Amino acid sequence: MASSSVDMDPDVARRLFEEGGTLVLLGVPQGTELGIDCKSWQVGPRFRGVKMIPPGLHFLHYCSVNAPSCGREIGPKTGLFLSLKPREVLLANWDPKEEDLDFSASQNEEELSRIRANLRELDPYLGPYPYELMRKWVSLTDRLSEEVAQKLQPLSGRVCAFSDVVPEHHFGTTEDRADQPRNDTACQSMREGLDRLPKMKQREGTELRLSVIPQKTYPPGATPAEITRCSLDLSYALETVLEKYHQVQPLDLLGELQFAFVCFLIGNVYEGFEHWKALLALLCRSEDAMRKRKELYLGLITVLYHQLGEIPPDFFVDIVSQNNFLTSTLQDFFQFASGPGVDSTLRKRAEKFKAHLTKKFRWDFEADLDDCAPVVVELPEGVTVD
Description:
Layout: H1 10-19, E1 21-26, E2 33-36, E3 39-42, E4 49-53, E5 56-63, E6 78-84, E7 89-95, E8 100-102, H2 109-117, H3 119-122, E9 126-128, H4 134-141, H5 146-152, E10 159-160, E11 165-167, H6 174-178, H7 190-196, E12 200-202, H8 224-232, H9 235-245, H10 252-265, H11 270-284, H12 287-292, H13 294-308, H14 325-337, H15 344-361
Parallel strand pairs: 1-7, 4-9
Antiparallel strand pairs: 1-4, 2-3, 2-5, 5-6, 6-10, 7-8, 11-12
Helix pairs in contact: 10-11, 10-13, 11-14, 13-15
């Protein structure tokens, strides 16, 4: 693990040395890919951890690597959110069986005291925090508090790129297996082959605990007219999510948007990307909420400004349809932001953001909005239109 290639201001270095946290990570195999926040390294033979970590929330991530004799294949990425206090020391030991870091030693005060007493001896083996990327990390997580991160990450404490799945049903006896499709004959179709596969589910405690966006975007007992309105303006669905998951602090929804983005961008979790898209669509298509929740939407523009700077502009283009999910979603946002009743500060900020995206990515937000296209909505069972 090489030291930072960017010279740090001596005063900043001194302050981080005195106030920064330390991650002591013992036994991490040489060749392991390990990183914190926006930077990663390949672990060398002298590596014992990371020092001079600014206090606050961080994302530690790592991939185990096979020995050279086994082809040096890289395993899926594992990550966890950590919050460090000034001068705090966290201790973890590598578990070779689980190929994971075990932080249980951090609960042993005697062990921690020994590590603190030996920090000077450990110092040459600790890599400095990549301070040159701190500004980027802060811009991607400034709305994400420790409480929100802990609430959203799996109960296992690990954010995993590949889902840990188990069979939905455990067939422990011959009788249990008797009703299952036989696998000793050739499949006659793709469907038959898929039906023979065991039904799997994510192992309990390993799933991200994200807000669930309601499939029905309208209130119970809604009339056909209300259903149509709530399908065009998703404010009811947005308010439902805010009330259920972020009632105390609605702006924490922006923290969840950042959490999902970091899980995808750094943790390689595709579910994070899908949730980010869903939250963004919900926010951008809620016209009434935009008039009522000025601070939420001013914050959304800032969050998106920094996030979109980290992804290539062609990333959002569907390779089959050539549609750009982001331009169509933001087109709705900019249209609503220029509508009546929207705060003038928010309207001006949206106009500047639109001009920025148009110039930087050459995205066209002036295309026809298909206002006359029919909107298909699903009516509740039993409701008819005369």
